[in-house]
Structures are given as C-alpha cells and as structure tokens.
C-alpha cells in the first residue's frame, strides 16, 4: 500500500475521541510520511492531543500510567486485517513488586529521547496553557524532586532533597533532620545515624536491650543492625487505610513517628 492509502484505524480514533472527552491528555508521535492530510485533520479536532512527528521513528509503543505495550502493530486498520503481529504487555505495578521496574524506566527513557528528537506539530490545550508536562513520562529523579517539594511545604524549615542511593533508586532525604540523624521519607520513615561506628554500636545495644517493635504506639519500629536504617512504619491498627489518607495526613503520621523515635533514641545518645 502507498502511504496515501493508509488510514488510522477507526476504532482507535473513536477511543481517542472518548479519551479526549474525558479530559485525558494524549501524545501521539508518528513518522513524517505516514499520515495523510485527512488523518491529520481528524487528529487536529482532538483539542487535548499533542501531535509530534519524527523523521525516522519505527518503534511501536503504547503506554499509560499502568501498562506498556511494545509491539510490531501499527494503528492502521490494514495492520489488524492483513498482518501477523506480535507484542508484549508489561504491567508497571507487577514489575515494581518484583523489582524489575528498571525495564519500565529504560523504556520511558527511550520515549523521552524520541520526544526530544521530534517536532511538536500540534499542542493540546493543557500544553498551550501550562507547557508540555506529561507526568507519566517523567523520570524517577523528576518525580522524587516533586515529592521533595511537597515534603518541604509540610515539614517547614526541614529541607528534603532528591538523593540517589547505592541501590540506584531516588529518595527524598533530609540531611541532619536531627543532629547527626538523616531522615528519608517513602511509604515509611527511615532514620540513619551519621556518627562514628563505636557510638552507633553503643546506641544500638541500648536500643535493643528493651526492644519491642510496638514500643511507640501507632507505629512499628525495626532496627536490624548498625549498618541499617531504623525503619518506622505506620501501624495500620491506629490509622485510616493508606488509600483513604490524604498526602498531608500521611506526612503528619510519618513525621510524628520519626520525631517520637528520635525522642526515644535521645535517651542513648
């Protein structure tokens, strides 16, 4: 088939229209010679779609906040009716749970590079109003920096910054949250003692002598060695389920748990 005979799959266009009506911002990157003027005109009607073209893109990748599909299949009806196609579906939450989330991150890095090398032909209404900001293609450092900004609003004068740790992941870390104690906040609070080894050993022995993981009401505390952080979890028995807590409520609980753990540790410092 000549490129002039190629048409966007009607069912796909209907899905794009439905997403547009729901206010979903969409990005499409196409190869320069693979859309007819008629097809471009149809896409121009979708006011919340960003349309890019790239002169030599050949990959087929479809991605939302939950799933990633890498496939041989185009969005043309011809591909569905005439070609033998294959693809692989990846679920983000399952990859994160299994520790294989680097696959997602590597794919996103390639997507970001393709977007950087493409020309923006049509802007969505959100891009016109706020600039091109698509949350689901931000890298881990950018997401961590945003989380740090939110923490800084809540924690006042305590300053969190994005830090890449030895495991290669990015975290929100407040250096010297309390004298010689760093605080990392994720779904839990982690306290790291920044003292000489002998001092940490003495604190650890005193801490473990009367240890009980429920020693602070409302929290579970774990410290399993001088080379590890003190981990503070919110005890589900004393708090609303995580999916029902606002970010502010979650920050408040984690701050309270970190502060009360530090107060307890000060008995041995």
Question: How would you explain this protein's 3D organization?
Answer:
This protein is of the alpha+beta class. It folds into two domains: 3-137, 2-Layer Sandwich (Endonuclease, Chain A), CATH 3.30.870.10; 140-265. It is 38% helix and 23% strand. A six-stranded antiparallel β-sheet has the order 7-8-9-10-12-11, with helices on one face. A three-stranded mixed β-sheet has the order 1-2-6, sandwiched between helices. Strand 8 and strand 9 (181-185) form a beta hairpin. The termini are far apart. Mean pLDDT is 88; it is low at 1-6.
Descriptive terms for the model:
269 residues; Endonuclease, Chain A; six-stranded antiparallel beta sheet; 23% strand; elongated
Map the helices and strands.
Blueprint lengths: L9 H12 L4 E6 L5 H8 L4 E6 L5 E4 L3 E5 L5 H6 L4 E5 H6 L4 H15 L2 E4 L2 H6 L9 H16 L5 E4 L5 E9 L2 E5 L3 E5 L3 H13 L9 E4 L7 E5 L12 H19 L4
Query: Any low-confidence stretches, pLDDT <50, length ≥5?
Result: 1-6
Output the strand order for the largest sheet: 7-8-9-10-12-11
Q: Given this structure, which CATH class of the largest domain is correct?
A: Alpha Beta
Radius of gyration: 25 Å
- Mean pLDDT across all amino acids: 88
> What assembly state would you assign to the polypeptide chains in this entry?
single chain
At the third CATH level, what is the topology name of the largest domain? Endonuclease, Chain A
From the 3D coordinates, which CATH architecture of the largest domain would you assign? 2-Layer Sandwich
Measured by DSSP, the beta-strand proportion falls in 15-25%
How many beta strands in the DSSP annotation? 12
Q: What best-fitting shape do the alpha-carbon axes yield? A: elongated
SS-based structural class?
Answer: alpha+beta
